[in-house]
Amino acid sequence: MSSRPVVAVRSPVHGLARRSLPVIDVIAQPLSAVAPSAAATTLPLLVAAASGAGAVLVAVAVALVLAVAVAACVNQFTRRIAATGSLYTFVVRGLGPRAGVVTGVAMLLGYGFVASFALAGAGWSAQRLAARAWPGLATGDAPALVAVVALGAAVWWVLRRGIRRSARVTLVVEVVSMTLIGVLVVALLAAAGPGAVARAATPQTTVPDVVVGTVVALTAFVGFESAATLGAEARRPFRTVPRAILWTAAGTGALYLAAAWAQLVGYARAGTSLADGVSPVDELTTAFGVAWAGPVLDAAVVASFVACAMASTTALVRVLFTMGREGLAPRGLGRVHPGLGTPTPALRVTLPLLTAVPVVAVLAGARLWEVMQALLVVAAGGYVAAYALVCAAVPPFLRRVGERTRGPVVLALATAVVLSGALAGMLLLAHGTPRRAGAWAFAILLGAGAVAGLARLRRRPPLRSRLGVYDEPVAADLLGEAA
């Protein structure tokens, strides 16, 4: 009779603070990664500039439906697998290691470049905020670069202290920011009156404009799936992670709709159009006689960007940790701090690089705002590509576990097709704009990363069987075992 234990003594992701995060900390991760406060103040303007003010509400609503559909597809995995590798691990389990490698590269681009974008956005917003008191700071990007470096160091310090502390910091920052944005939205809608609110809700657009606007609006939702990277660290992963993903997608979408509605109403009351706006926060607070609220909201946007950088880096280092633990990435990245349970080697490698990207680009002659647009294109491309692949992975995964049913399969395949079209549209729309550098960077980096990863698989055939690791029950988890 074999004496081998029924379950393993040690989890494949040992070293992390397993089963330590309560639901509130798990929710903090995707909420901060999405950065809803920063997105709510800028998304309507970006959609209006791309497709016209009349398409804003419909485009945001369609993007909301699409984000919820992706969340439902991702949750087919999160209810069954607790994986720090997030979508990368899920695609390996559904479509195999080759597709998983492509997804992993896409996720690294998504998390990494959105973290760089958030740091750049925080520095840019901090410079605008400081220029209110010292107008001389409004010239050039040098003050923003100083802020980027300082904020990058602050993010590194918080993240190194452990997931519990970083989750609580980001949650407090984002809740305060969302509260301030919510107060402004309610105030604008109340001041406008029922008639103006109803007129703003009447769509005056065309199908092509809605398609263009939806592609732009979708970029504001990316990051909601990042709760899946905490699957091993959540106390009740199969319950809290799916809820965090779905609630974040739906809740931020509702905030975006309300913010877009309020901005449409506010600009109409001021006798202008949202499509002609430059800085909605400053312009609307001034138009409604509450200019004092502008600096407060600018500070909230800075805080939201910082929270986004923290959450995105948290997800990034956990994907790298998974790859290092498997052997797809250097083994050193699969180690953790023995006392803090944090993947500090991955953090040491990535965060300085993420901070340097916008700084180097500006020093090379680019404007910070243009750099931010390019970074966002790369990040959004990575996210949307990974979303399409994870949706395509749902049918084979459900078939393998013997739980394939018609509804989830149809939803997954339809969503994968729509996302593939959205990705193509996003890249095509970037050409002829300052964002075209981001489109080229995404295509080159995704291709180079995928080629390198697939070449590693060919050189090391046993590696294929090691991809897709996730947290599994161990002896200490069983009832009656010692902790």
From TrEMBL:
Signal peptide: none
Entry GO terms, CC: membrane
Transmembrane segments: 53-78, 99-122, 142-159, 171-190, 210-232, 244-264, 299-321, 349-369, 375-398, 410-431, 437-457
UniProt topology in membrane: Multi-pass membrane protein
Main localisation: membrane
One Pfam assignment: AA_permease
Keyword Manganese annotated: no
Subcellular location: Membrane
Assigned keywords, A-Z: Membrane, Transmembrane, Transmembrane helix
GO terms (BP aspect): transmembrane transport
Residue span(s) of domain Amino acid permease/ SLC12A: 49-418
Highest taxon listed in the record's lineage: Bacteria
InterPro entries recorded: AA-permease/SLC12A_dom, APC_superfamily
PANTHER family reported for this sequence: AMINO ACID TRANSPORTER-RELATED (PTHR42770), MEMBRANE PROTEIN (PTHR42770:SF7)
UniProt name for this protein: APC family permease
Source species of the chain: Xylanimonas allomyrinae
